[in-house]
Amino acid sequence: MTAGARIQLLSPRLANQIAAGEVVERPASVIKELLENSLDSSARRIDIEVEQGGVKLLRVRDDGNGIPAEDLPLALARHATSKIRDLSDLEQVLSLGFRGEALASISSVSRLTLTSRTVEASEAWQVETEGRDMHSRIQPAAHPVGTSVEVRDLFFNTPARRKFLRTEKTEFDHLQEVVRRLALARFDVGFNLRHNGKSVLALREATDEAGRARRVGAVCGPAFLEQALPVDVERSGVRLWGWVGLPTFSRSQADLQYFFVNGRAVRDKLVAHAVRQAYRDVLFNGRHPTFVLFLEVDPAAVDVNVHPTKHEVRFRDSRMVHDFLYGTLHRALADVRPEDHRLAPV
Ligand code: ADP
Ligand code: MG
């Protein structure tokens, strides 16, 4: 630090790179942001292409609403979003994104190309940035209605961050986990994932129960589905549905646990505690339960604006949510509970 240095505004590029430090950790975090944007744009089908674990190339192509040509440069600007306008929107935000930071951050640390076409437009338009000056050129391009974002050479201009990337396999595992989670959150959307030219996941949109179960099997493995109990309970406007793995399908790691609140993947202490309690007397010490669960509550009863990565939520009535979760799962597991524990209070 220079003593007595004068105060200066950061350049847009540096400001974006600093913001990127918080939200863009690795290829998996880029994919998360791009997929959330596609889902926010009402895409029905998303194709993801990855090379070298995502470090060399990440391409997400959707058939969503697209971006009007005149908005394309803005899409890459910081604090620019089409998703909220005022504080009241923020209070009941339903979109996955709303901070208007992701594309600006990603484009400051990669070579990014954004191509998009709306249904009203007669052609597609494209902007490119090279992580340099945050000024983008706009030019016509060929693309069906929807949006493609191509991210090349992640962290090419921030070697310190690049150094923290792990092996291609590790990075791809993280990335694939993000795709899995979102594929479970949105049964109604088709997902295709390719890595180094090979198909890894091919999920058609699932509109009925059989289709949803098929997707859970494809994402979590057929063994999970065979050894899971379906759950669907509603009480005073709160609904919990999904699949809970039988104790026989427990794991040595907590790696098959998916919990969604209003379609948003959530890792939450309160939720974890309720689940752990429900499984307490049916699981051996050190074993972890498996589950794919969806909680649906009034959006006004939950605050999602807690952290930029948005894995946490805050429930207005956390006690009620905890007890409802615990009670529902405890009852679902009643038949596999040893006789002398069956009368445990719910
Ligand atoms: P946020 O998602 O928080 O609004 P982003 O930086 O992720 O911020 O995206 C900025 C804006 O670019 C979005 O608000 C949206 O209008 C537009 N956008 C980004 N990706 C897409 C996409 N795949 N389809 C349509 N619009 C998109
Ligand atoms: Mg976004």
TrEMBL record:
Top-level taxon in the UniProt lineage: Bacteria
Occurrences of domain DNA mismatch repair protein S5 (ranges): 216-334
Keywords noted in UniProt: DNA damage, DNA repair, Endonuclease, Hydrolase, Nuclease
Gene Ontology terms, MF aspect: endonuclease activity
Similarity comment: Belongs to the DNA mismatch repair MutL/HexB family.
Function: This protein is involved in the repair of mismatches in DNA. It is required for dam-dependent methyl-directed DNA mismatch repair. May act as a 'molecular matchmaker', a protein that promotes the formation of a stable complex between two or more DNA-binding proteins in an ATP-dependent manner without itself being part of a final effector complex.
Name of protein: DNA mismatch repair protein MutL
Gene label: mutL
Covered residues, full protein: 1 to 346 of 624
